[in-house]
Design goal:
With 323 residues, this protein is an alpha/beta fold. It contains 10 helices and 13 strands. The radius of gyration is 21 Å and the shape is globular. 38% of the residues are buried.
Length: 323
């Protein structure tokens, strides 16, 4: 039985997704959307949507998808999908997970090193051909990092931090021993523990409970030399409070890959906030990502059409069986 698959991605790799899926699953009728408006126009005919939730959250387009049976998120985050009022209970929702640990870990190390060594300043000095701007660097060895959100990605990242001699604290709802962490702390102890941190590293999903969890109180409790690194979702940070803390130099700096509004508007003060590194939501993306995500989709599709939902991986919502 054929199904209409709508692939929405605003990068050039959307053609690779279509090519790989078309070769493996020729029974699919595949349509591509390269921007939100195109996706909104085409979704009424889709049986399956394959997209990043963060890219479709601009408005509730699922309410205009009467045929939709399955939403396969290209990423690990499901915000923009499960929080849309138009998502029906009979629609299956799956995430793409287990392929982000290494790439987010490497990105995290790069950003921490860039903050500790004030690397953007060195790049600017290069553009001026200025050799005189030489400063001692901070070492990561001996620093304390607090990782807010202890899931599979954090379990990969924490040992990398330990290998550099860092002290690693995990903030989680359920405290449990995990390799790579020196200790676990309850999430509600974030403010009390913040004064100990040299880095506050965010890997927590966006939910109603975590929105704005890094707020003025948390930022006020941090050291004036401490850094915030957000590879999670922009919604977990109170952005005005962070901008204020950075502008007034009440914390040492920040590296931000995710934002409340994406793409980050050109007039956002974060572009020019002191001691801030901005990257365009690329921490989880790497050169083999498309192939890895497609493998998960193919396996899930075969289980889905076989009416075997128990065999599908990373299911958030179990809807009706495939028609």
């Amino acid at each position: 039985m054929s199904h209409n698959l709508l692939i929405f991605f605003d990068g050039p790799q959307v053609d690779d997704y279509a090519r790989l899926l078309g070769a493996a699953l020729p029974q699919l009728s595949i349509t591509i959307a390269r921007n939100f408006e195109d996706c909104a126009a085409k979704i009424p005919d889709a049986d399956i949507l394959f997209a990043f939730g963060a890219q479709i959250r601009q408005r509730d387009i699922l309410v205009t998808a009467p045929r939709l049976q399955w939403v396969a998120a290209m990423g690990t985050g499901l915000d923009g999908i499960v929080d849309q009022p138009g998502l029906r209970a009979d629609v299956t929702v799956t995430a793409t997970r287990g392929i982000h640990g290494q790439t987010l870990g490497e990105m995290g190390l790069m950003l921490m090193l860039a903050l500790a060594r004030d690397f953007p300043r060195s790049v600017l000095a290069q553009t001026r051909r200025d050799w005189s701007d030489r400063r001692p660097a901070q070492l990561l060895r001996g620093k304390t990092i607090g990782i807010l959100g202890v899931g599979a990605i954090a379990e990969t990242f924490a040992p990398l931090c330990k290998a550099l001699g860092m002290h690693v604290i995990g903030f989680t709802r359920t405290t449990r021993p995990i390799p790579g962490f020196d200790r676990m702390v309850a999430r509600d102890a974030l403010v009390a523990t913040a004064p100990l941190l040299d880095f506050l590293f965010l890997l927590i999903p966006a939910t109603p409970q975590t929105t704005g969890i890094v707020n003025r109180e948390v930022l006020a409790a941090m050291k004036p030399t401490a850094f915030v690194v957000n590879l999670a979702r922009g919604q977990v940070v109170d952005e005005p409070a962070l901008i204020e803390a950075l502008t007034e130099r009440r914390i040492g700096g920040a590296a931000l890959d995710t934002f409340v509004n994406e793409p980050l508007p050109p007039d956002s003060p974060l572009w020019s906030t002191p001691n801030t590194i901005v990257t365009p939501h690329v921490a989880g993306y790497y050169d083999e990502y498309t192939e890895a995500a497609v493998v998960q989709f193919i396996d899930n599709y075969r289980a889905w059409v076989a009416h075997d939902p128990a065999a599908m991986t990373h299911v958030e919502q179990r809807g009706a069986a495939a028609r």
